[in-house]
């Protein structure tokens, strides 16, 4: 419970601190003669550590068109992130919120251009983009976000939005995209996969050139998940949806 609710780092330093906090609390009770012997159970941790710092991130908590689970890397390890997209009557405007950096904004523009150029294959009317505004938001808006690895997540979120199709349950993804339809490798694969596993994700879509990084991922995690590797954006779309 401490691992899932109070620490998210890739190392053990913060876990050691939290265990130390519990031990000091127990030592205080013994010193004050409140107890001679204590057994600490999961339900007791709240007394020593307070409310959990991280609520369980179930990748299934939102399953609707336009919402996709992505994977990110932070200084303390991997994280899952949600990308949300909605459309409204308007005139071609793309709005991006959630404290996104320039690279993520460019990735969103690239994804939208790719979708518009392949609208026929996706079964989307060309007039859709002329008569609608699109708003993309990445929750946890107080935290700045940037980097190219959300490219495929932005792509799939927009495809899901304009086609009205839901992404496969328990699926997450990461990868950089290009206007030519390529998927490029990204960093932090081990940390991202560990975060996906912790969040209940069962299938992960990754760049083909990141397949070599799987040797760093613990074997027991690999055995519990399915992985798809591709270097084509069209393949990403095929694997992200049920049909």
From TrEMBL:
Any GO BP: proteolysis
Name under which the protein is recorded: endopeptidase La
Domain Lon proteolytic: 62-243
Gene3D superfamilies, sorted: 1.10.8.60, 3.30.230.10
Transmembrane segments: none
Broadest EC class assigned to this enzyme: hydrolase
Catalytic activity of the protein: Hydrolysis of proteins in presence of ATP
PANTHER family: ATP DEPENDENT LON PROTEASE FAMILY MEMBER
Entry-linked InterPro entries: Lon_lid, Lon_proteolytic, Lon_Prtase, P-loop_NTPase, Peptidase_S16_AS, Ribosomal_Su5_D2-typ_SF, Ribsml_uS5_D2-typ_fold_subgr
Superkingdom of source: Bacteria
MF annotations from Gene Ontology: ATP binding; ATP-dependent peptidase activity; serine-type endopeptidase activity
Annotated EC: 3.4.21.53
Alphabetic keyword roster: ATP-binding, Hydrolase, Nucleotide-binding, Protease, Serine protease
Residues the record marks as active site: 149, 192
């Amino acid at each position: 419970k401490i691992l899932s609710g109070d620490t998210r780092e890739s190392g053990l330093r913060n876990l050691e601190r939290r265990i130390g906090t519990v031990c000091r609390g127990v030592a205080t009770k013994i010193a004050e003669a409140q107890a001679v012997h204590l057994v600490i159970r999961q339900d007791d941790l709240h007394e020593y550590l307070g409310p959990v710092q991280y609520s369980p991130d179930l990748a299934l908590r939102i399953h609707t068109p336009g919402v996709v689970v992505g994977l990110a890397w932070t200084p303390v390890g991997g994280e899952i992130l949600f990308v949300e997209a909605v459309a409204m009557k308007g005139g071609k405007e793309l709005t991006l919120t959630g404290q996104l950096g320039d690279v993520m904004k460019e990735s969103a523009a690239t994804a939208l251009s790719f979708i518009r150029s392949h609208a026929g294959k996706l079964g989307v009317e060309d007039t859709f983009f002329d008569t609608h505004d699109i708003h993309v938001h990445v929750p946890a808006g107080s935290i700045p976000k940037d980097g190219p690895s959300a490219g495929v997540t932005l792509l799939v979120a927009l495809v899901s939005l304009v086609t009205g199709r839901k992404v496969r349950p328990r699926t997450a993804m990461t990868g950089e995209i290009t206007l030519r339809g390529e998927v490029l490798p990204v960093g932090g694969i081990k940390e991202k996969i560990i975060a996906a596993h912790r969040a209940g994700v069962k299938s992960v879509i990754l760049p083909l050139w990141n397949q070599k990084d799987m040797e760093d991922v613990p074997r027991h995690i690999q055995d519990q998940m399915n992985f798809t590797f591709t270097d084509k954006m069209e393949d990403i779309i095929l694997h992200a949806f049920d049909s």
